[in-house]
Amino acid sequence: MSAAPSQEALALTGELTFATIPGVLAQSAEYEARTDLPDRLVIDFVGVSGVDSAAVALLIEWRRQALLRGKTIVFTNLPANLVALARLYGVADLIQTPVV
Q1: Which conformational region is residue 14 in: left (phi greater than 0), alpha (psi within -120 to 50 degrees), or beta?
Q2: Which structural domains are found in the chain, ordered by start?
Q3: What is the mean pLDDT of residues 82-96?
Q4: Quick one: which of 6, 1, 9, 93 has its CA closest to 52?
Q5: Which of 58, 49, 63 is nearest to 2 (CA)?
Q6: What is the mean pLDDT of residues 24-43?
Q7: How many Å apart are CA 56 and CA 13, to the nearest integer?
Q8: DSSP, res 96
Q9: Is residue 80 within 8 Å of residue 48, measured between CB atoms?
Q10: Is 60 helix (H, G, I), strand (E, B) or coil?
């Protein structure tokens, strides 16, 4: 799993699973610590190759952290299986960006 800021987006690659989440959290903490962190945070999942239920928990944690910092967070290119898991757990509204 690697994460690298690309313009105003954090682009994720690899798997988001129980085994990889600790490393992803550490990398995202570095991203969040930036002094120039924008008010609108975009996390792009286009390079994510696999997920499990831990990924749902990760997105909810990121949403919580963004709210604590007064930031807006947007998840783009969510894998269909991640959205399906979120629906199964009844939390899809927490990870999807409302259409305005």
Answers
A1: left
A2: 2-95 (3.30.750.24)
A3: 92
A4: 1
A5: 49
A6: 88
A7: 16
A8: S
A9: no
A10: helix
The per-residue pLDDT for range 61-87, each reduced to its tens digit, is 999 999 998 999 999 999 999 999 999
Question: What pLDDT is stored for residue 4 in this prediction?
Answer: 47
Token pair listed for 98: 């409302």
In the numeric block, which tokens belong to residue 44?
A: 């792009």
CA distances from 52 to 6, 38, 61 (A): 25, 29, 15
Report the amino acid identity of residue 1.
Answer: M
Residue 13's contacts (CB-CB under 8 Å, 6 or more residues apart) are: 1, 2, 3, 47, 48, 49
Q: Which of 31-35, 46-50, 77-81 has the lowest mean pLDDT?
A: 31-35
Instruction: Kindly list the strands in the beta sheet with 40-51, ordered across the sheet, starting from the edge strand earlier in the chain.
Output: 2-6, 9-16, 40-51, 72-76
